[in-house]
Structure formats: C-alpha cells, structure tokens
Amino acid sequence: MVMNKVVSGGAEREVSTAPQAASVPGSTARMTPARGMAAPVRVAGERVREGHGPVSLLERLGERLSFERMSARMYEALATKLERCGTFESGPRREDLMAIREEEVGHIGILRHAIEKLGGDPRELGRAARVVRVANSGVFQVIVNPRTSLAQGLEAMLMVERADCDGWHMLIEMARAVGEHRMSDSFYLASTEEERHVELLRRWVTHHALQDVIAGAEVLDAA
C-alpha cells in the first residue's frame, strides 16, 4: 500500500492510493454485490437436486397429464357413439377405439411418475392444465353431442391428437435440456404411439370423406 501526504485546509494527512482489488480469472477472491444489486442467479442448465425439478417442466407435465386424461374420456365417448350410431366402411371398430384409450391411460401413468420424480403432485391442477381442460371441453362436447356423427367425432379427435403430438415433442426436448434422459426416452415412446393415433384417425376420416365424395358423384350420375 502506498501512502501519500496531502494538504487540506492547512492540515496535513495521509491517504491511500492503493488500487481496488479486481476480479482476475483464477482468483479465489469473491465479489460482494453492492447494496441494491441482485445477487447472481443460477445459469441455465443447473438443477436443484433437493427433490424439486424445474418449475416450467412440472407445469408442462401437468398440462400434458390433463390432456391425456381428457383424451381417454374422449375415446370412451367415441366408443359409446359408435355403439349407438354404428361405424362406416373401413371405419374403426369399438375395440380399436378402446385400444387407443388404454394407451392414453398408459401415458397418464408415465406422466404421473415423471411429476412425482421431480417432486410434484399429480393431483394438483396448474394454470396450464386448467387451460387445456377448458380448450378440450369444446371438442368433448362435439363428441358426446347426439346430433353429431361418428365421423364428425373422429375428425374433432384428429385435431386433438395432432396437438397432443406437438405437446409430447416439446416434453422430450425439455426433459433432455435438464438432463432427464430416461424420462425423455419414456416420452419418446409415448409420442410414437400418439403419432400412430394420428395416422389411424386420419385414415378413418379420409375413408369417410372419400365415401361421401363417391356417393355424391353417383347421385349426380343418376340424375
């Protein structure tokens, strides 16, 4: 430390001219935040491992769980509509719809396990889950409405399953981002089943649309 003498008001005093400590790479010195400044926060990628996972991932898991629960109910309603209205040529059988429902129930189990693993409660209904429930309630009403046909119900369900696929793909990426690779693998298996649901529904809806077109053409030819 260098001490210099200065004169102020006729009095002589010593002051320090030593430079302030700087932060140097490799230095063990710690800087204390100045008053009014926020303390440093964790950077992205760091995880708290005291039983609580990232809040955003838990929120999305709850959203998907609500989605899958509603999907299972929708397939049950479709099976009931099929029993009442019957199917169409190349359309689904009741066992086809119930088989998909069972896969949706399996996805519910995957999501419950993931939420519990991250320290969450599957019984809690977060904001995103409530939004999904409200959004899908309209589709559910289309399916259970006695004035709609099985084909109309299947077409509504196709929109739901397309959105479901996107949701699972998002979960896969989020789980990988926080290092939950086994969880991500289980989500990938669920997403492949959801993609198969989309293909089945698209096939059934397309077959019915083609039948309508052919029937309309035959009517015109006969006129």
Automatic annotation (TrEMBL):
<dbReference type="InterPro" id="IPR012347">
    <property type="entry name" value="Ferritin-like"/>
</dbReference>
<dbReference type="InterPro" id="IPR009078">
    <property type="entry name" value="Ferritin-like_SF"/>
</dbReference>
<feature type="compositionally biased region" description="Polar residues">
    <location>
        <begin position="17"/>
        <end position="30"/>
    </location>
</feature>
<feature type="region of interest" description="Disordered">
    <location>
        <begin position="1"/>
        <end position="34"/>
    </location>
</feature>
<protein>
    <submittedName>
        <fullName>Putative ferritin-like protein</fullName>
    </submittedName>
</protein>
